[in-house]
């Protein structure tokens, strides 16, 4: 298959790696909101371990911000290609229809590409599957 990307496959792999780091750092959420609840007993809440937990969280890794910035820095063609690779990886389009998929991504563009892609629960998996389907 002869695909000419504005983005290199290595760049897409980097984005997939960053997306995977983001997806593992996001808190799990559950529909009824109780499975993720944590209960502490009164011994756990003692003053024996006094520190400001929020101060530690300020040093949280900036993976999501970095990923958003990397995606925001893409030009229109690159962003459409990234969406197309994602859609192909998700199985919405065939790899042989890559150029058509890129065009479709440009036509459907609403809002920021970063918000859309990061909002996909399996975004890094879709990117990797798309690269595989495109033989890149």
UniProtKB/TrEMBL annotation:
Name the record gives this protein: DUF3775 domain-containing protein
Region (Disordered): 25-63
Organism of this sequence: Roseibium algae
Pfam families: DUF3775 (PF12616)
InterPro entries noted in UniProt: DUF3775
Source organism, top-level taxon: Bacteria
Biased composition, class Basic and acidic residues, residue ranges: 31-54
């Amino acid at each position: 298959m002869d695909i000419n990307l504005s983005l290199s496959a290595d760049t897409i792999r980097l984005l997939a790696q960053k997306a995977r780091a983001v997806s593992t750092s996001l808190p799990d959420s559950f529909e009824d909101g109780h499975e993720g609840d944590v209960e502490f007993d009164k011994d756990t809440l003692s003053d024996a371990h006094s520190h400001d937990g929020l101060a530690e969280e300020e040093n949280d890794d900036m993976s999501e911000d970095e990923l958003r910035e990397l995606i925001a820095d893409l030009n229109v063609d690159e962003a459409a290609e990234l969406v197309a690779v994602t859609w192909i990886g998700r199985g919405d389009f065939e790899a042989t229809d890559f150029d058509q998929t890129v065009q479709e991504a440009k036509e459907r563009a609403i809002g920021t590409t970063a918000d859309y892609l990061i909002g996909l629960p399996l975004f890094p998996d879709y990117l990797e599957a798309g690269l595989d389907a495109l033989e890149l």
